[in-house]
Design a protein that fits this description.
This protein is α/β, with parallel strands linked by helices. The protein contains seven helices and eight strands. 37% of the residues lie in helices and 20% in strands. The protein has an eight-stranded mixed beta barrel with strand order 1-2-3-4-5-6-7-8, surrounded by four helices. Helix 3 runs parallel beside helix 4 and helix 5 packs parallel to helix 6. It starts with a strand and ends in a 5-residue tail after the last strand. Keywords: FAD, Flavoprotein, Oxidoreductase.
């Protein structure tokens, strides 16, 4: 389990399914700290496992819970199984979707079911699949498709790389691609795991200088022992 932490905000109390852009922006206008929890999807989507996690973390009053995507032999079935688990999650949910390997017709079915379940927030990543296996090579392609089909009905978050994406040619190229995702419709950024505060601070400065002005949330791994 991993944990995000965003500074300059207020600890969250109970909230319903809400657009994360709204509550993140509202929280940033207040002084304090909020947390959210990222959960790696467990085998067979064991509801009892999730219930224990929620029981153990409820006193932290997390702003939202995030459920990760992972590759597997039955990629599209995995999405639908995860979707049916989400109503068990308390307060706001951030549902991951990886672009590679997905077909347009499957994405439409996923979005339709997510909308039925009142899931309003999506975290879009490229994923590590073969670019020839689906209709979306990059996260920005999937973001554009979602916006074309559902306009502003979903709030979208994307990944940022303070230490540069390993496949990027340069830091500037990395910022260019990140800005493309924001201009396509992403409302906030969650970084890869931060080990040093300076890397996050410098990343935020670089983003602002490049014209990327959406909220940026650092991802940190809690010390367990």
């Amino acid at each position: 389990m991993e944990m995000f932490c965003l500074n300059e905000s207020k600890t969250n109390t109970s909230i319903g399914q809400t657009n994360l852009e709204e509550i993140i922006t509202r929280s940033q206008c207040q002084k304090g700290i909020f947390f959210s929890f990222e959960l790696v999807r467990c085998k067979n989507d064991d509801k009892e496992f999730y219930k224990k996690i929620f029981s153990d973390t409820k006193d932290c009053s997390p702003l939202f819970y995030s459920l990760t995507w992972h590759n597997g032999p039955c990629l599209n079935d995995n999405y639908f199984a995860s979707l049916e688990t989400l109503p068990e999650f308390p307060n706001n949910i951030l549902f991951h979707l990886a672009a590679r390997g997905l077909k347009r017709n499957i994405v439409l079915k996923i979005l339709h079911r997510a909308f039925e379940l009142d899931i309003k927030n999506l975290f879009i990543i490229r994923g590590d699949g073969n670019p020839n296996d689906g209709d979306f090579n990059y996260a920005v392609d999937l973001i554009k498709f979602i916006k074309e089909q559902y306009d502003k009905k979903f709030c979208i978050g994307v990944a940022g790389y303070p230490n540069q994406h390993p496949e990027s040619l340069s830091k500037e190229a990395d910022l260019h691609y990140l800005k493309e995702k924001v201009e396509a419709g992403a409302s906030f950024i969650i970084t890869q795991i931060i080990l040093e505060s300076s890397s996050f601070i410098n990343f935020v400065k670089d983003c602002r200088n490049y014209g990327i002005n959406v909220p940026i949330i650092p991802l940190i791994m809690p010390i367990l022992r």
